[in-house]
Every structure is written in structure tokens, then in C-alpha cells.
Design goal:
It is a single chain. The chain is mainly α and 199 residues long. Helix content is 69%, strand content 0%.
Length: 199
């Protein structure tokens, strides 16, 4: 007879993933151990292995859960009926809001893909490309000249925006002189004003 899931299965999963992300972010992917993760998450090693049979499986689950949440938040925020400039501001705001409280997960995403299989990397890349494409579509509407065959700048500009968003965790502090919403506006303005001069 198949074993049924406990009612709190998903909640336990989330707790384990959050604590595992903390350990990976603090210790690095190589040094972190399943024993450390079990201790920090206040679960037995047996229970940890019941949910995640290996460290690689745990890393993959952290990244996929983080990216799926980000993708869903972006999709919800995207409004094709808005003028492209406002649409972009909403998308940037959605990304930075989704990053709130997710520094550890973000570090794992940026630093741990080398530990994954080709199949796992392909799944992650598919979501990342979908997210990037949503932004590049809007930037193309704002400045179609970026997508010139002779000088294809759409992707470099798109990835420059992601550079501003993805590395914000390195310096941003909640309660500091600039709010997350303020920085979303700053990053969007830098791109909107900057691409006017890009040739």
C-alpha cells in the first residue's frame, strides 16, 4: 500500500529548504553537509533524507522553488495593457519584492548550479529564459532598435538590468536610506534613460 503524505508535508519541505539555503549560503556548497542541515532545520537525518535523498537534490529543490515563485510573481505582475515603461517598472518591482527575505535562496541559485546534473540545469535554464524573455520583450517595445541584426544589443541590455537586480543582495539593507520600492524605480529609470543613448 502506498504511503500517504502527512498533512504538513509541504510545510516541512519549506522549513527544510529555508534552513538548507541558510546553511549553503553560510558554509558554501562543498562544505555544507546533510548533518549540518538536519541540525539547523531541527529534523533527523532520516527525515531529511526522506524528503531529499542527496545534497544535489536539496540544492535543486531550493533553486527550483525559488525560481518558480519568482516566475509566478512576474507573471502576476505583468500587464501587457500598460505602456511599456510602466509595465517594466511593475516587473522590476515584482522581482525585487520577490527577493525580499530570499537572499540565501538567491545565493544558492547563483553559486550552486555546477553541483547539478545536465537535466537539472536544463530545467532551471528553461525557467530563467522564460523570465528573461518577459523582460526582453518589454525592452524591445521600448526601443526596437536594440534588436538590430547588425548590432544586437537587446540581450546585453536585458542582462544588464538583471545584473542590477540580481546583485542587490550584496549591498541592500532593509530599513536603510533607500527602500526596495525606491531602488526598483532607480534601476528601471537607469535602464529607460540609458537605452535612449544606446546605439
Amino acid at each position: 500500500m502506498a504511503r500517504t503524505r502527512a498533512a504538513d508535508f509541504e510545510e516541512k519541505q519549506r522549513i527544510i529548504l529555508d534552513h538548507a539555503a541558510q546553511v549553503f549560503a553560510d558554509q558554501g556548497m562543498e562544505k555544507a553537509s546533510m548533518s549540518q542541515i538536519a541540525t539547523v532545520a531541527h529534523v533527523s537525518k532520516a527525515l531529511l533524507y526522506h524528503y531529499y535523498p542527496s545534497k544535489d537534490a536539496l540544492i535543486f529543490a531550493i533553486i527550483m522553488t525559488h525560481l518558480e515563485g519568482l516566475d509566478a510573481a512576474i507573471e502576476e505582475a505583468d500587464d501587457p495593457d500598460l505602456p511599456p515603461e510602466q509595465r517594466l517598472r511593475k516587473l522590476v518591482g515584482a522581482v525585487l519584492e520577490n527577493y525580499r527575505g530570499a537572499d540565501n535562496q538567491h545565493k544558492v541559485q547563483l553559486n550552486a548550479t555546477s553541483a547539478l546534473s545536465d537535466e537539472q540545469k536544463a530545467e532551471i535554464t528553461a525557467i530563467e529564459r522564460r523570465i528573461v524573455r518577459r523582460f526582453s520583450t518589454v525592452l524591445d517595445q521600448i526601443n526596437p532598435g536594440l534588436n538590430s541584426r547588425d548590432r544586437p544589443l537587446l540581450m546585453p541590455v536585458t542582462m544588464s538590468l538583471f545584473g542590477m537586480m540580481n546583485w542587490v543582495y550584496m549591498w541592500f539593507r532593509e530599513g536603510g536610506r533607500i527602500s526596495r520600492e525606491d531602488y526598483a524605480d532607480v534601476a528601471t529609470t537607469l535602464i529607460l534613460e540609458g537605452i535612449k543613448a544606446v546605439r
